[in-house]
Automatic annotation (TrEMBL):
This is Glyoxalase. Gene3D superfamilies: 2,3-Dihydroxybiphenyl 1,2-Dioxygenase, domain 1. Residues 6-116 form the VOC domain. The lineage of its organism: Bacteria, Bacillati, Actinomycetota, Actinomycetes, Pseudonocardiales. Pfam families: Glyoxalase_6. InterPro entries: Anthracycline_SecMetBiosynth, Glyas_Bleomycin-R_OHBP_Dase, Glyoxalase_6, VOC_core. It comes from Amycolatopsis rifamycinica.
Length: 117
């Protein structure tokens, strides 16, 4: 059986793609090239379907949520706050899994930030 090798891309609709791309670059350090290619560091990826009525993604209209691995969650959240980003106050710790925080991008997409254990 053939198997997928990993996430090959993540695509989102944007009212202003250039501005949203700049936000991801300037606030999260996602340094994609002009074609959107981004060389990420190796590490785990979670693929997990959620119940249709979950509130975990924020807005019920949001069908998926992007999760980024980070080295230092507290430093990343502080960096985002200092840039005026909409950062959730809550931080969640899951024993053996890691720490989680959330930010909402300028177009309303809730993003999860994960510092693996």
């Amino acid at each position: 059986m053939e198997r997928v090798l990993g996430i090959g891309g993540y695509f989102i609709r944007a009212a202003d793609p250039a501005a949203l791309g700049a936000w991801y670059r300037d606030c999260l350090g996602l340094d994609a090239d002009e074609h959107g290619l981004w060389q990420q560091q190796p590490g785990p990826t979670v693929f997990a379907p959620f119940e249709a009525g979950t509130g975990y993604f924020g807005s019920p209209a949001q069908q998926t949520m992007l999760n980024f691995r980070v080295r230092d969650l507290d430093a990343m959240l502080e960096q985002l706050r200092s840039r005026g980003a909409d950062v959730a106050d809550e931080v969640q710790d899951m024993a053996g899994v890691g720490r989680f925080g959330w930010v909402t991008d300028p177009e309303g997409h809730r993003i999860e930030l994960w510092q693996p254990a």
